[in-house]
Task: structure prediction
Amino acid sequence: ATLVGQFTIGGMTCAACVNSVEGILRDLPGVKRAVVALATSLGEVEYDPNVISKDDIVTAIEDAGFESSLVQ
Ligand code: 9UX
Result:
């Protein structure tokens, strides 16, 4: 099964930040797809909830030095 979560991502100021966050997300076990938008400070992540939780995803973003919260 897969779910799609939307996350706010704060602190991104350039396109390299976007690439960095997308790379971090895509490397997480259980993440199948990740798209991050600089203009809206939002990320959409498709993930397997049996492998990774929404909170794990928020924590991974924050560990990379950005702010994050769950949208839905
Ligand atoms: Mo751009 Mo982001 O020079 O952490 S990579 S600000």
User: Anything to note?
Assistant: The beta strands are 3-10, 31-37, 42-47, 67-70. The chain is about 30% helix and 35% strand.
